[in-house]
Model the fold of this input.
Amino acid sequence: MDSLGYLLAALTPYHVALAIGGVVAGTVVGSLPGLTATMAVAVLIPITFSMQPASALILMGAIYTGAIYGGAYAAILLNTPGTPSAIATTFDGYPMAKRGDGDLAITLACIASVCGGLVGALFLLFLAPPLANVALSFGPVEYFWLAILGLTLISALSQGNLLKGLIGACFGLLLSCIGVAEISADVRLTFDSQTLLGGIETVSALIGLYCIPVLIDLVATPDRHLKVENVSRGYRLHEALGISWRNKFNLARSSVLGTLVGILPGAGGSIAGLVAYSEARRSSKQQGSFGHGAPEGVQATESANNATVGGGFIPTLVLGIPGTPPDAVILGALLIQGVRTGPNLFTEHGSIVYVFIWGLLIATVLMLPIGLLIGRYAYRSIVTVPKALLVPTVAFMTLIGTYAIRNSVSDVAIMIILGVLGWVLGRFGFSASPIVLGLILGSIAEQGFVQGWIIGAAAENLWGEFFGRPISVGIFAFILLSLFSPLLLSRFRVKREMARAD
Amino acid sequence: MPTELQSRDTGGMIVAAIFILIGVLALWDTFDYTDADSFVFPRTVAGSMIVFCIALIAWSLVRPIDVESRGAESTPRRVGLVTAMLIAAVLMPYTGFLLSGLLAFAAIVWLAMYDPWTRGRLIVYPLVGSAIVLGFYFLFTKVLLVPLPTGRLFIG
Done:
């Protein structure tokens, strides 16, 4: 079958209906804090058992891509990332919503998500086998440095000073160590508490650290949650398309970055969004507007995190190594269907893989009208619902969403306590983002660090193991750049202003 | 309206000192671990955190920062919200998720209410709240098949 045949097979009414249903279900699930893309895909897996493999993949891919986009709603309207990949969306999305541009931010996020999703899927269609080798060139030390790069980027980007961000990142890494150690089974940092024995679940921590401080502040004042415009401005699609066209290079660069980061197993949308956001800010002429409601920030993050969907499928399908947690669930579903992933998948099961990729492209395109419709409804709901109903509804969603992750009351208590901690720390300039990302990246960082340490110690070349490999050195250089470039740039700016004043 | 003043970051320094204490506690805890795989990472992270905290305290001593003064905000309502959520979490295994959720919802509606309680609101808000709680309960238990606690008090 040629490309046109695969496209036509993906365009059957049945497959289009699956794509629409998947995107709607994924977007709704992703928008609810506590319900992740992984959970959505996992819950729906039994439905796919009776389907043909290509149809099952189209449904799961559509749910996945919809859920990643859906995470933007809560990030923009409630300052709570629906999924970890939307962390950087809060930086500019929420300030935009607070000043009355929440509708524009959601439309921009939808357009950016579609662009990113399309770029990721096109890379998957045309460049999957050669790009899969990128994943193989990353060893444990490279993953360690990549996790540290993510943490230094968020420390430098989130509000407050750099040292506070780094302290928060270290605290998040320590939180990730709580519980039973994976390799040696040592019980760590629980201080004999049974509640902490299971460790801190990352999504419940994310809900607590982002959502509870917003609720605590909402309940304290009679002010409205978001600024409300008296005149309905529709989807603001024309305005959003204009902004997207003006920032086309930002969209393209962020989408490619998202795809490349998505290829690396474990790195996921959170690092992709941060790297793209950092690059967008660095190359912008209006760097000062970032963090205060810059549309470019929302576009960079949302295009990058949706590009990780296609990027993550590259190692999953070519190497059998899942790029992200939802990919791992999808890989399991494929194995149950009797499809063995690997380098020969594209030649031996072309009819499955190519129909799926075209299906993913169709689902991504469908995300534009579906995302705009649901986004409009979400915006109107959040803006018009009285505060006395909004606060308890969100609070109840945090309780039920957190409990559902591991069916654990301990997780609910930890979520609330972390939320209070996040609110207190926020009062003193410590942002929640580095803590959350430290918690998310903790296991990748620890695994890479410990393996690198063991290899280096055995070879009696610890320094060479961490600083002697080309990719490690490259990432380390980026870390130094992200740490010191804001300092050097501000010094340079002050000197230039002083020279101009003289 | 929040205003900004130049001041020493005393709060930040106190938080940094608490983080130093947490770092020391974490370091102390690592001496009980049996395997190097378990302690090498937390020790490195705790050590780095202590160094960053000391640097922050030193930096705060020499550089004043902009401190935002805040408007009138209700601390009792904040405490009430957190307390209501914590009580719901504690009650969950005994009364079941549905009852504890309904109680928490009602308490938080009362806490978040700044407008006068009209007759319409007295009727509509409890109805809407019950519909939301029951709707999510149904979604999670029947559709997503999450086994929410039913409550020990009611099953003997």
